[in-house]
Write a structure and sequence with these properties.
It contains 3 helices and 9 strands; from the N terminus they run E-H-E-E-H-E-E-H-E-E-E-E. The protein has helices at residues 17-31, 62-74, 106-122; strands at residues 6-14, 39-41, 48-58, 79-89, 97-104, 135-141, 160-163, 165-172, 179-187.
C-alpha cells in the first residue's frame, strides 16, 4: 500500500441495538414535523458517540494508534451511560445539528475522552478546539428556520449504553452516505 495513503478516522463508543432502535423512532417523530429533505438524518445503524475525530490519518499510523488506544483503554473500567434529552448545536433558535444527550457516568466518559485527547496530541494531532460534550448526532440541518416549530419535548427512553470498549473507526464518505468500518477495538480493563 502507498506509504502516504490516508483514511478518515475517529474514535468512538458503539451504541447497543436497543439504543439504535429508540433513536430511530425519535428521528422519525422529528422528521415528521419538518419538510422532507430539510435535514440529513443519520442512519440508525451509524449512530455512535464520537470521543475524538482524527480526520485524515496516515495508514502507517494505524498500528501506533491501536497500541496507544489499548494503553488508554486498559486504564479505564467499564461504565454505563444512558440516553437522555434532545438538544441542538449551537442552540434551539438556530439549530444546525440535532443530538441526543447522554447521562449516567459522565465523569467516567469525560475522563476517558480526556485521556484519548492527550493520546492524540502525543501522537501529533492538534488539540481539539471545542470542549467535549457527550452526545449522539441525529441530524445535520440544512435550514434551521424550518425547525423553529418542532417539539423538543420528544421523549427519549433512558436506555442503558454499556461502555465496554472504544473503537478506532474508518469513515468513507460516499454519495449514498458514510460507511463506517471498525479498524481496531480496545477493551476497557481498569478496576
Amino acid at each position: 500500500m502507498n506509504e502516504t495513503a490516508t483514511i478518515r478516522a475517529f474514535i468512538a463508543i458503539h451504541l447497543p441495538e436497543a439504543a439504535h432502535a429508540e433513536l430511530a423512532q425519535v428521528c422519525d417523530v422529528l422528521a415528521g414535523q419538518v419538510p422532507p429533505r430539510s435535514a440529513r438524518w443519520v442512519e440508525p445503524h451509524l449512530l455512535h458517540l464520537t470521543l475524538r475525530f482524527l480526520g485524515d490519518t496516515a495508514v502507517s499510523q494505524m498500528p501506533a494508534l491501536a497500541v496507544a488506544l489499548d494503553e488508554v483503554a486498559a486504564q479505564h473500567a467499564p461504565f454505563t451511560l444512558s440516553l437522555s434529552e434532545l438538544g441542538s448545536f449551537p442552540n434551539r433558535q438556530r439549530p444546525r445539528v440535532i443530538w441526543a444527550g447522554l447521562a449516567g457516568d459522565l465523569t467516567a466518559v469525560h475522563a476517558l475522552q480526556a485521556d484519548i485527547e492527550q493520546m492524540a496530541r502525543r501522537l501529533g494531532w492538534e488539540a481539539e478546539e471545542k470542549p467535549f460534550r457527550a452526545h449522539v448526532t441525529l441530524a445535520r440541518i440544512k435550514d434551521g428556520r424550518l425547525f423553529q416549530g418542532i417539539s423538543w419535548g420528544s421523549q427519549i427512553n433512558a436506555l442503558p449504553v454499556p461502555v465496554m470498549a472504544v473503537h478506532l473507526m474508518q469513515s468513507q464518505l460516499r454519495p449514498s452516505g458514510p460507511v463506517y468500518t471498525t479498524r481496531h477495538s480496545s477493551a476497557l480493563r481498569g478496576r
